[in-house]
Write a structure and sequence with these properties.
about 25% strand; 14 strands; globular; 11 helices; about 350 residues; six-stranded mixed sheet; alpha+beta
Length: about 350
C-alpha cells in the first residue's frame, strides 16, 4: 500500500515556517511606533495614521533588491540585503516629502532555511529602525522547485504619509537653484548585473579568492555588499527647517535618468563631475569593465545616492544641517534653462 503523503513530503515544512514567525516577532517588536494597532501574526496588519496630520496623503512604494542577491548567495551576505530592501522603498517615498510609517516584506524560497531567513528579516528590521517605520507584516512563501537550494527572492512595500500642503513635486524648481548631493554608501542596489559581469571578466567568477583581498581597508566582498544608505531621518529633519524644492533618489538609471524625474519643463540640471569624490569601487568597475563615462552615469549612482534641489540662499545652511546629521554632502550642480531638444540633466 502506498504510504500517505504530507505537505513536508512535497517540500513544504510548516513547522519551519512557524519557527521563523517565532524568530521574527521580537525583531518586529523593536520597530514599533505610533499608529501600529496590530502587527505580525494576523491576516492583515492595522495602522492608524498619526492624528498630528491635518490633511494626510499616503505615499506608497515597492521594490526588491535585484541581482545583488546573487552575490549575497555566493558570499553569504544575508545580514544586510534586508536593509537594501527597506532602503529602496523608503528612500523612494521620501522624495515626495513622506515620513515612512510601515513596511511589509515578501520572502520567497524553494526550501525554507530558518536561520538564513531570520538573518534576512533581521536586516529588514534594522532598515525599518533606521528609517523610523514599523515592520508590521509580510509573507514567507516556500515553493519547492521554484528556486534552487540556498536561493530566495525579496520584495518589499512601504507606506508613508505627508501633509497635503507639504508634498514635494519639484514644481517650484527654477533656474538659479542649487543641486546638492548626498554620498552613497556604494552601489546600493542597482547595476549589479553589470557589476557581476565586470567581476567575471576580471577574475573569471564570483566565488574567488580575490573577493577576500584588501580593498581600501576592507574586504572587496564587503564593499560590494555594503547596504544601501537610508536618508530618511536627516532629510526629514532638513525639511522641517528649510524648504526643499526637489529630491531625487538615484537608483536604476543613475544620475542622468533620475534627476530629470523631479525637474519641471524647461529646466536643466548641470552636474559638475569634479564636485564630488567617486568612491574607489566605481573607479575599479569603470577601469576593469572599460565602461565609458556616459554609461557610468546612466547605470550607477557614482557616489551620489540622493539629490536635493534648494534655493541658492538656503544651500549653505542645508549643507551644514546635513553634515551635522552625519551626511557627507557636496554642492554638485545648478539649475538652468533647458534649450529645446537638450537633455534634462548633463554631467560636465
Amino acid at each position: 500500500m502506498t504510504a500517505p503523503l504530507s505537505y513536508k513530503d512535497a517540500g513544504v515544512d510548516i513547522d519551519a515556517g512557524d519557527a521563523l514567525v517565532d524568530r521574527i516577532k521580537p525583531l518586529a517588536r523593536r520597530t514599533l511606533r505610533e499608529g501600529v494597532l496590530a502587527g505580525i501574526g494576523g491576516f492583515g496588519a492595522l495602522f492608524e495614521v498619526p492624528k498630528r496630520y491635518r490633511e494626510p496623503v499616503l505615499v506608497s512604494g515597492t521594490d526588491g533588491v535585484g541581482t545583488k542577491l546573487k552575490l549575497a548567495f555566493t558570499l553569504g551576505g544575508h545580514d544586510t540585503v534586508g536593509i537594501d530592501l527597506v532602503a529602496m522603498s523608503v528612500n523612494d517615498i521620501l522624495v515626495q516629502g513622506a515620513e515612512p510609517l510601515f513596511f511589509l516584506d515578501y520572502f520567497a524560497c524553494g526550501r525554507l532555511d530558518v536561520n538564513t531567513a531570520a538573518r534576512v528579516v533581521g536586516g529588514i528590521a534594522r532598515g525599518c529602525e533606521l528609517s523610523g517605520c514599523a515592520l508590521i507584516g509580510g509573507e514567507t512563501a516556500e515553493m519547492p522547485g521554484m528556486y534552487p537550494d540556498g536561493e530566495y527572492d525579496l520584495a518589499g512595500f512601504a507606506v508613508g504619509v505627508v501633509e497635503k500642503s507639504a508634498i514635494i513635486s519639484g514644481a517650484s524648481i527654477a533656474p538659479g537653484d542649487v543641486v546638492l548631493g548626498l554620498a552613497s554608501s556604494g552601489a546600493h542596489s542597482n547595476g549589479y548585473s553589470l557589476i557581476r559581469r565586470v567581476i567575471e571578466r576580471a577574475w573569471g567568477g564570483i566565488d574567488v579568492p580575490e573577493m577576500n583581498q584588501d580593498f581600501h581597508g576592507r574586504r572587496f566582498a564587503e564593499a560590494l555588499l555594503e547596504p544601501t544608505r537610508i536618508y530618511v531621518k536627516p532629510v526629514l529633519e532638513l525639511m522641517r527647517q528649510l524648504p526643499v524644492k526637489g529630491l531625487a533618489h538615484i537608483t536604476g538609471g543613475g544620475l542622468v535618468e533620475n534627476v530629470p524625474r523631479v525637474l519641471p519643463e524647461g529646466t536643466q540640471a548641470t552636474l559638475w563631475r569634479d564636485a564630488w569624490t567617486m568612491p574607489p569601487l566605481f573607479a575599479w568597475l569603470q577601469q576593469q569593465g572599460r565602461i565609458d563615462d556616459a554609461e557610468m552615469h546612466r547605470v550607477f549612482n557614482c557616489g551620489i545616492g540622493m539629490v536635493l534641489v534648494l534655493a541658492a540662499g538656503d544651500a549653505d545652511r542645508a549643507m551644514a544641517l546635513l553634515a551635522s546629521a552625519g551626511e557627507q554632502v557636496w554642492r554638485i550642480g545648478e539649475i538652468g534653462e533647458r534649450a529645446p531638444g537638450a537633455a534634462a540633466t548633463v554631467v560636465r
